[in-house]
């Protein structure tokens, strides 16, 4: 494994070359054992630059991005530029370790709800909001139990909030039950109206239409037409010639 990591470092893998001896010597205030590596499931901890892109070209993209943020209805272009400059942004965080205020001035587009979700997805390949809500639902019962056991002034405030939440849930349940009853009533009324319109003749016609006689009634064959013509002719007079 050590030899494999050395080969990756020699070919320029950023996640390994960032911890090289040359990189550590030039760092200021960095201990000899301070190794930069993923700690919280960062799949794309330190990605490589895109093809045909350099640090200088991506810095120009960052400058253009700061101008695009000031425009309205520009989310799609901002998203494409944020995706393109992802590697440059990660290296800046890992290598330079800037302060939050400084980083916010350089990357203002990152500090929005959409881009925070997108950045989390770029780093971990996991959607942030849906994962958070799923885990919140999973641990909600334990959280509610812990909140109820809280005492003091904080516990009283939490009890008031939870009482209001319980009342809202009861109101919501009543509304959903009423909507379900209305939907069942409407569906029953539509079915009754459809049966009333079809009537008994419609049902009889459907049953008769399945027999051979009904098929002859609606789609008479040439031989049946001939027999019918002969029968009518005999009633009126001499028989007429009929072939078929």
TrEMBL record:
Biased composition (Basic and acidic residues): 183-196
Domain of life: Eukaryota
Chain intervals for the UniProt region annotation (Disordered): 182-208
PANTHER family with a match to the protein in the record: SI:CH211-193K19.2-RELATED, SI:CH211-196P9.1-RELATED
Official protein name in the record: Uncharacterized protein
């Amino acid at each position: 494994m050590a030899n494999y990591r050395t080969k990756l470092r020699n070919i320029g893998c950023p996640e390994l070359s960032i911890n090289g001896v040359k990189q550590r010597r030039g760092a200021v205030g960095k201990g000899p054992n301070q190794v930069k590596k993923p700690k919280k499931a960062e799949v794309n901890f330190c990605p490589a630059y895109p093809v045909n892109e350099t640090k200088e070209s991506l810095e120009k993209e960052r400058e253009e991005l700061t101008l695009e943020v000031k425009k309205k209805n520009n989310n799609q272009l901002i998203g494409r530029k944020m995706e393109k400059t992802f590697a440059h942004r990660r290296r800046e965080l890992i290598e330079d370790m800037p302060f939050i205020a400084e980083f916010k001035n350089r990357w203002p587009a990152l500090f929005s709800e959409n881009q925070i979700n997108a950045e989390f997805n770029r780093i971990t390949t996991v959607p942030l909001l849906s994962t958070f809500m799923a885990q919140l639902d999973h641990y909600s019962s334990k959280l509610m139990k812990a909140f109820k056991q809280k005492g003091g002034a904080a516990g009283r405030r939490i009890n008031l909030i939870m009482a209001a939440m319980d009342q809202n849930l009861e109101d919501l349940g009543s509304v959903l039950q009423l909507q379900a009853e209305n939907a069942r009533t409407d569906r029953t009324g539509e079915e009754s109206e459809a049966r009333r319109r079809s009537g008994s003749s419609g049902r009889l016609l459907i049953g008769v239409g399945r027999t051979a006689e009904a098929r002859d009634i609606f789609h008479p064959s040439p031989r049946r037409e001939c027999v019918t013509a002969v029968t009518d002719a005999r009633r009126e007079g001499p028989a007429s010639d009929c072939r078929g």
